[in-house]
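Holo prediction. Input below; ligand is iron/sulfur cluster.
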Amino acid sequence: MAKPKNAMEIFKLLDKSNCRECGKKTCLAFAGAVFTGQKAIGDCPKLGPEIIERYATEPARHDAVADIRDDFLEKLKNEITQTDLAEAADRLRGRFSGGKLTLKVLGKDFSVDGEGRLFSDIHVNPWITVPFLSHVLYGKGLPASGKWVSFRELKNGQERYPLFQKRCEAAMKNLADLHPGFFDNMVHLFNGKQVEEQFRSDISVVLHPLPTVPVMVCYWMPDDGLASDLRVFFDRTADENLDIGSLFSLGAGLTQMFEKITQRHGLGGAFSY
Ligand code: SF4
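Structure of the complex:
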């Protein structure tokens, strides 16, 4: 559990929309109420579980975090019932047919209908469902600019970067170090595309967890006594197309998925999904 030094530290984590869903008129008032103990950090439904876990007054139990996430998921599904999915399909480069909006997630169809029910060829789990629904509801669908930035350069990314570095970049680097087929499999199983090396990396692969939210993974092999390194980049438009909590969830979720697959199939060579 981290104890905030002041209300501003809490405020920086919020999305600053002043949406009032926490029962306070502004995000600033909410931050003050959390700091003085009148509100719990989890009362803001827009914060991801990792922030709630970090700042909860009582260390959040795993099932408490899961409950918060499930409640948030239900809230998003309710909002979907009020949304024009045909308009969302146009906005987000998806398609709308048979009452369902479909977007490509890592190259596979992922759909939602007007009642918030989800359909997919890939395993439907929270790391993708929350970002998917948030994107449908609030994503602007801006086309990729071609300019890559790190997580910390995105709006509200700086504060969350240490945890992102640990849960996504460092964990993925371990997999890449140990697993010779790591990037080949990323390309073949998840419709990744190897691109010309960026930032002088040895390997650069672009994935599309959502059609307008590309993610680039760059890997530097160990060289001349220098340790290997791995960094994950987002398009400059990422924070307009998705909130920072969902971008965190995509990075950490992708990493967890790769970890599970390598555990299941071993680290020695190619694996299948
Ligand atoms: S619910 Fe969260 S985003 Fe909305 S006003 Fe409260 S603190 Fe701000």
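The longest strand covers residues 203-210. That is the main takeaway for now.
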